[in-house]
Amino acid sequence: MPTIVTHAAPVLVLGSALGFRRIPPRLFWVAVFCALLPDLDVIGFRLGVNYADLFGYRGFSHSLLFAAICGALAWSAAPFLRCRRWLAFALIFAAVASHITLDAATSGGLGVAAFWPFSGERYFFPWRPIRVSPLSLRAFLSERGLAVLRSELLWVWLPCLVLAIAARFCLPRRR
Ligand SMILES: [Zn+2]
Known about the structure:
This protein is mainly alpha-helical.
């Protein structure tokens, strides 16, 4: 996986580009949380679940079905999120899908079970420029961790920053 902070980057970009007038704050912060949510499956390691199992790391929680379920929950919670139902579904689905997309572009581990239940196969993109982050803090606080941060800055944060700036200039201001 990219680092947990980097998983929030696409939602932060979307939020800064569209602003709180288009994306209500509650919906925005729930979307940030949902961009990180799939990696709660690391709990499975502690519970003895195998990496390659359906509920193992990058399994069910890294599927588009899981993204759709999260989107459906947001759709039903739209009054609480103070937004239209379609917006709640779309943003939360996109937040979880962005997590799956970034993981599929990393250089290590198993791929993502993006198309479960139609396929149990684990997928990666053919081109994977993002260095996979070590799961242990000790390994992260090393030369390997620096390499991960460098690759995330180059392949995630820089493109997100360019997109955010472009969107600021291109999108009409909403009053
Ligand atoms: Zn992940």
